[in-house]
User: Fold this.
Amino acid sequence: MAALTHICGRQQPPTAVHRARGWARPVARIAGTAVVFAVAWVTMRDRLPGIGEISAALRSAAEGWLAIAGLAMLVAIGLFARQQRRLLAGVGVRLPRHRALALAFSRSAMAISLPAGAVVSAAYAFRQFRASGADRRSATTVMVVSGALSVAGLILLYSTGTLAAAFLGASASWRAHPLLTTGAAVLLVGTFVALARFVSRTIAPRHWLLALTAAVGNWSADLFCLIATARAFELPLGLLELAALFLTVQLVRQIPLTPGGIGVVEASLLTGLVGMGAPEAAAAATVLTYRLFSCWLMIPAGLAGWLVLRRRTVELDGAVVQRLSRPARRAKRRSWKTLATPTSATSSAPPTEANSNAMPSGRVPDAPR
Assistant:
């Protein structure tokens, strides 16, 4: 809510409660980050691999699986762009596919690399939605619904995975974990019902259901990137183990301890992989490679997307106008000069009745001021 207030420009003067919260949030983030690193250090204290071991593991990676992992991350970004396009279509705004893809890369890079990256990313998305023709209310609606769908997609993926694991084990899983299986089913149904009641007030079901499908696909492609990376380094872990670790780390990542979860995600993944029995060097190489695809390569890609969007639109005094291409600007300046500069025949001709009623020299209706 604070982010939306900042974006929409309706800020209230700070109070004592707001100032206290301003101090509490950084302290909570520092404390949470310290707890994560403390747990990781206790778990990995005598098991951290050396740089030489990690380098050897990186050189032994299967290139085919690495290519699949990189492709999976591109699919994840494409589905995130699809999610935003579908929600904008639900409020009557058309966002071209290349602009949606550039916006998805830019938002990811901002959220990862900047302090308060989530707020900066949301504010930037708001401006781009406005640039695409959405009014203030529609742009805010799309932002709120997009965030809700992303969280709901992760919850649906988590509960569906739990139910799938229980179904594969059938009666044994039910007897061993009855509360977990029942809770996953209730969470799945409750999330869908609550989401339907919340979103259907502003966006037609056809649009938000497709957007929700894209959100689930986004998380699934991200998970597949981790699985492919683990296969590249031959980690002796199954799909269910990797999926459980991925979903747990993503839930922890939703707590904004650091921008993009930098440090927290690496420590959590490494601790989880080694705790499940993966070799230390291969686990460290898997974490570094996965974060290269999901985090560090997003920064230059996001910069390229930001440049694409910057060349297309410019915002002046709150009104968004399309920027002309360079040849069009030159042609427009030539037309203005032709209108503003009188010809020699016109300047040497004697004044007539028509000329006496004309606009004074140097002032024409279409000339810029």
